[in-house]
Every structure is written in C-alpha cells, then in structure tokens.
Write a structure and sequence with these properties.
Elements: E1 2-9, H1 13-25, E2 31-34, E3 51-52, H2 63-82, E4 86-87, E5 91-94, H3 101-113, E6 119-122, H4 123-129, E7 138-142, E8 146-148, H5 150-163, E9 167-169, E10 176-178, E11 181-183, E12 188-196, H6 202-208, E13 215-222, E14 225-226, E15 237-240, E16 253-255, E17 261-263, E18 268-269, H7 284-298, H8 305-312, H9 318-325, E19 339-340, E20 344-351, E21 356-357, E22 363-366, E23 369-372, H10 379-393
Parallel strand pairs: 1-2, 1-12, 2-9, 5-15, 12-23
Antiparallel strand pairs: 3-8, 4-8, 5-7, 6-7, 10-11, 11-12, 13-18, 13-20, 14-17, 14-19, 16-17, 20-21, 22-23
Helix pairs in contact: 1-5, 1-10, 2-10
The structure holds flavin-adenine dinucleotide.
The site of flavin-adenine dinucleotide has 40 residues, from α1, β20 and α10.
C-alpha cells in the first residue's frame, strides 16, 4: 500500500494549485495528485477562455470577490516567474440598449466595492480603447483583465509542484475513497488528508465522504468560434452586461494571448458531464441523472430557466451565436468566424432541494477531507488565491 501525507483527487488548475500551496506551507511533506486522464489540462482548466478576470462581477461578501482580485495578481506573478505569456488586453463591458445602464451602474458599484480598478467611460472613450465595439451612452473599462494560455498555466503549475517535491500521477483515476484512503485501479493509498478537486466529478467524490449530498453537478457546454481576422484587429475583450439571474456572462468576444478574436463560450445545457461534441464518451446513466434534475431546476424561482434554455439552445447554430456577438461589435460577421474552438464544460453545482445554481465557490470540510464543490469561472483566475485560502484553513 502506498502512502502520502496529502492526496489531491483531480489535477486541473485547482488541484495543482492546492498541491502547490500545501507544499509551500508544509515543505518536505509528501503530496500526491491523482488525475484520471493520461495528459494534463484535459478538462475545464485546458478548455477555457484563459481570461484573467479582475473580480468586479461578484457580490462583495463572496469568496469570488475576495479570491479573484488576489488570484489575478497571484496568477500574473506566477506567469511572470515561470515565463508564461500574459497579454494585457483589458476588457470593456458594453450595453446593447439604454435600459441596461442601471445594471452597468450596479456592476461599476460592485467593482469599486471589491477594490477592483474600474472606470466608467463614454462612447468616445470606448472608441479610443476598442474602436470596433459599440455601446449606448456608457461602458465599463477594466484595465486589469488580461489573457494567458490556460493549458500553459496548468503545465507550469505541474512543474512547480514537482520542483517542490510533489508527485503528479496521470492516468490514475480515484475509483473509491474514504477518510484516510483512496483506491485507484492499480493501487490503494493511505493518507492523512484528501483534497477533492475533481471538477465535473467533485460531487461524486464528495458523496463518497457523505459530504454535499444535497448537491449535484449540472454541466453546461461552452462552444467557441475563432475568427479569420488578422491577429490584433480586436484589441480588448468585449462583454455584454450579464443577466444577474444566471451565473453566466452572456455571449462575448475575447482575444487570445496570440491576438486572435473568438466568440463564446456558450452555456448550453449539456447532456452528460464530458459532453464535448458528437457522441464520443456518451454516458447514458449520467444523461438520465442530469435529465432527472431538470424538472426541479426548471421550476426554480431563483433563475429564469425557460429563458436560459430558450436563449442558449439556438447557440448550437454558429450563425446565430456569431450574430449575437455582432450586437457588441458590429463588424463581426458569421463568414469570418468558422473555425471551431475546443469546447469546455462548466462544472456548475445545483442545490437540488431549492433548484438553485450556486453562484459562489463552494468548499466543504469532511472527515480528514476537503471538497472543492463549485470551482466554476473564474476559478482558473482565482486558483492560486483559492488554494492559499483553503490550505490555511485545513
Ligand atoms: C468554457 C469555459 C470557459 C471558462 N473561461 C474561464 C476564464 O476565461 N477565466 C477563468 O478564470 N475561468 C474560466 N472558466 C472556469 C475554469 O476553467 C474553471 O473554473 C477551472 O478550470 C476549474 O478547475 P478544476 O481544476 O476545478 O477543474 P478541471 O480542470 O476540470 O480539473 C478537474 C480534474 O479532475 C480530474 N478528475 C475527475 N474525476 C477524477 C477522479 N475520480 N480521479 C482522478 N481525477 C479525476 C479530471 O480529469 C480533471 O483533470 C471557464 C470554464 C469553462 C468550461
């Protein structure tokens, strides 16, 4: 039987950040990260937009507010230390009608309350920052939003974990676990503490410990389309004012670290957890479970679920999706956005009794275990700060 002081289940950015933070705080301890995939960044951490969020969307008393601003600074410093490129795009939030201005004001007030650098600008100011974008009257300018290659960050973090003495074992799924032990198909590990950072399967792992039994993962698929525009034509990320009833940010345009513009991601209800397109990996049992959650979710007073389904499902159509983005940047045309991006699936946690999608990060303690249950966006940005916060509390 193998032994490790700490075992982390899940080697995405959150699991690796937790291993890294543990080793920084407890040098010399034995830390093992298990990931079921044969290569790093196979799921959300390698399939996201790579936007280093600033932290202005979130309620001031939330973990997201606290950890995103610090996470942005920590991730920038990490990229600097490890030679991972960061592109300082900044971001503008634009309105598509004058009715959205009060919501833009709310967003501005939140950002200021969260201590995030943020500026309210007029149409002329927007033209100067991003000549391709349009707004009605005013827009927000976030100078600390940026972009990096998300998979490059994951690889660099895995390297730092190894340099600090941790081991990252790939192709090693945890198939069962309880206080003090984890079983994989080939080995059983004894351990002092288990950290569950299993992303789309974090609820399943938590349930092994009797933790978070009111929660189930409700996956939402994010599709992207790349433009054929020359690099640098779009300079800033361009976002709409989000609908506060849903945890997603609406159709937006981002710029990659290499300067390419892309539209997306969507938040289309997924049929199973690793539903990346086609029927590859189709899981009938998961689909049945997920379908079983929808009647409760659809009656939820907390969200506009029929509206969400009505607006998201048509986004399977590239033309429809790209035309939505044209409301923010009028020169966007479907014929220029034909290259499909690598889709990602959001591991969104549903509180089953209330039908509520959890908006904030959810972290729960169990017997000799810690469970990261809702590592939704912007957890890639927040990962290093989240890990520091969690490790200080274990
Ligand atoms: C489309 C999309 C766009 C996004 N855009 C952004 C963005 O621009 N900026 C931002 O900050 N955030 C963004 N996010 C959010 C961000 O990607 C996630 O918050 C973050 O990657 C979560 O990291 P994770 O380590 O929890 O998850 P993951 O990367 O999914 O890692 C979990 C790991 O657990 C492993 N695993 C699962 N079960 C087991 C098991 N039983 N045994 C062993 N291993 C297991 C999986 O193989 C996986 O590697 C986006 C997310 C999506 C889906």
């Amino acid at each position: 039987m193998a032994a490790s002081d700490v075992i982390v289940i899940g080697g995405g950015v959150v699991g690796l950040a937790l291993a890294d933070a543990w080793l920084a705080r407890h040098p010399g301890s034995a830390v093992t990260v298990l990931d079921k995939e044969p290569h790093l960044a196979a799921h959300a951490s390698g399939r996201n937009s790579g936007v280093l969020h600033a932290g202005f969307y979130y309620a001031p008393d939330s973990l997201k507010a606290q950890l995103t601003r610090r996470g942005n600074q920590m991730l920038r410093a990490f990229c600097d230390e490890r030679g991972v490129d960061v592109r300082d795009t900044g971001k503008v939030v634009v309105t598509t009608s004058a009715e959205q201005l009060p919501r833009l004001d709310d967003l501005y007030a939140r950002g200021i309350a969260n201590g995030v650098p943020l500026e309210m600008i007029d149409e002329a100011g927007l033209r100067e920052l991003e000549p391709l974008a349009r707004t009605h009257g005013r827009a927000l300018w976030s100078p600390s939003t940026a972009v990096a290659d998300p998979a490059a960050v994951v690889h660099a973090l895995a390297d730092r974990v190894a340099e600090r003495g941790g081991q990252v074992l790939l192709g090693m799924p945890a198939v069962a676990a309880g206080p003090g032990w984890v079983r994989t198909p080939t080995e059983t590990f004894n351990t002092g503490h288990i950290i569950n950072a299993a992303g789309l399967y974090a609820d399943t792992v938590a349930h092994w410990f009797g933790v978070g039994e009111d929660y189930r993962m409700l996956p939402f698929k994010g599709l992207y389309w790349y433009s054929s525009w020359p690099a640098g034509r779009l300079q800033r990320h361009v976002y709409p004012v989000p609908d506060p009833r849903n945890p997603f940010l609406g159709v937006h345009l981002t710029v990659t670290v290499h300067g390419r513009a892309k539209v997306g991601p969507t938040a289309i209800p997924s049929l199973w957890r690793e539903d990346y397109g086609g029927l590859g990996g189709f899981n009938a049992r998961e689909s049945a479970q997920i379908a079983g959650l929808y009647p409760r979710f659809a009656r939820s007073p907390h969200h506009d679920v029929p509206g969400l389904v009505r607006t998201e499902l048509p986004k399977y159509s590239r033309r429809y999706l790209v035309n939505q983005a044209a409301a923010l940047v009028p020169s966007v045309r479907p014929q220029d956005f034909r290259e499909r991006g690598r889709p990602g699936v959001r591991a969104q946690l549903l509180h089953v009794p209330t039908g509520k999608l959890e908006m904030d990060f959810v972290v729960r303690g169990g017997e000799r275990s810690t469970h990261v249950l809702n590592a939704v966006s912007p957890a890639w940005t927040s990962s290093l700060a989240m890990a520091e916060w969690i490790v200080a509390r274990i």
